[in-house]
Amino acid sequence: MRPRAGAPRRSRRLVGGLRARLVAAFVVVALLSAVTATALAYRDARTAVLQRAQNAAVNDLRERVAAVAAEFDVPPDQASLTRFATRVSDGLGARVVVARYQDLTAVSDASADTAGRITAELRAAVRTRDTTQFQRVQWRGEPYVVVGTPVTYADGDRRTSGLEVFAISDLRAERDDANALLDSVRSGLVPVVLLAAVLALLAAGTVLRPVRKLGRATRELAAGDLGTRVAVRGHDELADLARTFNETADALQESDAELRAQEAKARRFVADVSHELRTPLAAMTMVATVLEEDAEQLPPDAALAARTVGAETARLARLVEDLMEISRFDAKAAQLNAAEADLAGTVRASLALRGWTDRVEARLPEGLRAVVDRRRVDVIVANLVGNALRHGRPPVTVTLRVEGAGGDEEAGGNGDAVGDGRAGGDGGGWVVLEVADRGPGLPPEARERVFDRFYKGDSARTRAAVDDGTGQGSGLGTAIARENARLHGGTIEAAGRPGGGAVFTLRLPLRRTGADEAAETPTGTGTDGPPTGTKDTA
Fold first, then answer.
1. Are 82 and 100 within 8 A, CB to CB?
2. Rounded to an integer, what distance in angstroms lies between the CA atom of residue 364 and that of residue 412?
3. Residue 302: pLDDT above 80?
4. 429 DSSP 8-state letter
5. How far apart are the C-alpha atoms of 245 and 429, rounded to whole Å?
6. How many whole angstroms separate alpha carbon 362 and alpha carbon 100?
7. Residue 191, preceding bond cis, omega within 30 degrees?
8. Dihedral pair phi/psi, residue 92, rounded to 5°
């Protein structure tokens, strides 16, 4: 199954659209806020828990040492120092107490390892500052707080006795409490992010719904529906934007109506003028014909004037006919009188009618038939070959072939057909007619405008008729030829030859279903175009 044409665009809009960006922004902001709040809360909670534990350890040690030291005599021996450490530890619960007096050291729990927990920095601070000190340490991956205090004499002058007491308190319970708080706060991040995403979707829907409606209306307006409008709700910026869009659409619709009315008036004017000119032109043509017939009996100057009047009258008559034909195309009134015809015979008849058979090299396969309007094909051939004879240089070649119907068919160099002209079957492929010359060719800017009305590639060309029998064009020939091709559902393309010269390529749908299909041939411009590109004739 082939993917829909709009699928890639829709997927890109879902991935990188405004809704996705809004939701992502909401989620990121919510996540950053939650993480920041969690970090701050964890830091404050951990600091408070540790501070409380430290304060309790310091106060408990001071009070207990003060109570036990009143009955302690210095200098002590090892036994009395050990009893002192044990009595202090008994009053502090499970804490390990170390008592030091000069070179003597006593530990309340003989099995406890205290060397790694009481640092030299703490001992030096207690000895030199004569105040209670504490330090948090990590020992074997576990947290501890060690409090040290010197023992002073009770005589009021705060003389140190040389006795130092250290208490080691375990902080694992406080650490576990802080981690439990962090886990609980962290587990709340997921609901916060989900809630932020839901709120973002709701906010994005509220904001983007008018934007989507405005985008849909803009696409409809671009597609030609000038009656599209957007409902204005509220008084915010989106409402102002919708109001501005409606005003712009109103102005555009009014301008379009005015332009259509002016265009219709212009078409009617051209058609009316052309129609009104036909009667006086008919009279002028008769007079000019009489003058041309008697030109041999007139003086030379009068004879030249009579021939010039005849030529200009004929040119004016052709211009009027072309204008009327163009007006029929503009009014969508042109119709095909299509029937199955021999295309090679149609092209030969068009060349013979204008006396071009000896001046054109024709490569026309026999037996190639298609449903066409012979009169309109004759107009196309006359215009393309006439332009090649008038503006190009010989040899001028006309090549007829079939493309896209089971293999290309092309005439041989001497006009003999290659193939039987029946490839492709009914209703398939294209009939291709190429007209090529060896003249100066068409510059790129002329190729883009050669089918414009009243366009002439060489402004220096004379307006007088030439001796090749083609006459001077009205400037509408190529435009009419293209409209006739479109009426058949085909196209005409102009290109340059690598060796110099121009190539005009006519492509018409190949239809061979006989009279039944000819009766059903559409009368409007075809919508299915032929294959692109132009094949130059060798």
1. no
2. 8
3. yes
4. S
5. 46
6. 126
7. no
8. -110, 10
CA 532/CA 219 separation, integer angstroms? 28
Q: What gap in Å lies between CA 135 and CA 138, rounded to an integer? A: 10
Q: How far is CA 332 from the centre of its chain?
A: 36
Q: Could you identify the residue written with the tokens 């883009």?
A: 448
Phi, psi of 104 (to 5 degrees): -95, 140
Cβ-based neighbours of 378, under 8 Å, separated by 6 or more: 346, 349, 350, 353
User: Considering only CA atoms, which of 285, 306, 311 is closest in space to residue 296?
Assistant: 306
Side chain identity, residue 186: R
C-beta separation of 402 from 409 below 8 A: yes
3-state SS, 87-132, equals: HHHHCCCCCEEEEEECCEEEECCCCCCCCCCCCHHHHHHHHHHCCC
Residue with tokens 């030109």: 295
> What pLDDT is attached to residue 166?
87
d(C-alpha 232, C-alpha 225), whole Å: 19
SS3 call for 246 = helix
Alpha-carbon gap, residue 17 to 23, rounded angstroms? 10
Decide if 518 contacts 339 (C-beta within 8 A): yes
Which helix (H) or strand (E) segment holds residue 58: the answer is helix 18-69
**Which residues pair with residue 369 across a beta bridge?**
342
> In 305-429, at which residue ranges do the beta strands (DSSP E only) sit?
339-342, 360-363, 369-372, 396-403, 409-411, 417-418
Q: From residue 206, how far is each of 25, 28, 193, 244, 498 by CA, in Å?
A: 16, 20, 20, 20, 61
Distance, C-alpha 248 to centroid of its chain: 24
- Cα 253–259–261 angle (5° rounding)? 100
Which element (helix H / strand E) includes 125? helix 120-129
Q: What does the block give as tokens for 36?
A: 């920041």
Give the pLDDT confidence of 505-535 residue by residue, as tens digits. Answer: 999 998 876 444 433 444 443 333 333 333 3
DSSP single-letter state for residue 472? -
The pLDDT mean for the chain works out to 76
Q: What share of the chain is helix, strand, coil (3-state, %, to 5)?
A: 50, 15, 35
Q: Which two tokens stand for residue 47?
A: 């600091």
| Other beta carbons less than 10 A from residue 139's beta carbon | 14
Partners of 152 in beta bridges: 160
Phi-psi category of residue 128: left, alpha or beta, with phi > 0 → left and psi -120 to 50 → alpha: alpha
Q: What is the 3-state secondary structure (H, E, C) of 13-25?
A: HHHHCHHHHHHHH
- Give the model confidence (pLDDT) of 46-84 as tens digits: 788 788 888 888 888 888 888 887 777 778 888 888 888
Distance from C-alpha of 380 to C-alpha of 343, rounded to nearest angstrom: 13
Cα 249 off chain centre by? 24
| 427 SS3 class | coil
Higher pLDDT, 458 or 131: 131
* Coil vs helix vs strand at 29: helix
The side-by-side arrangement of strands in the sheet containing 133-139 is 104-107, 96-101, 160-170, 142-152, 133-139
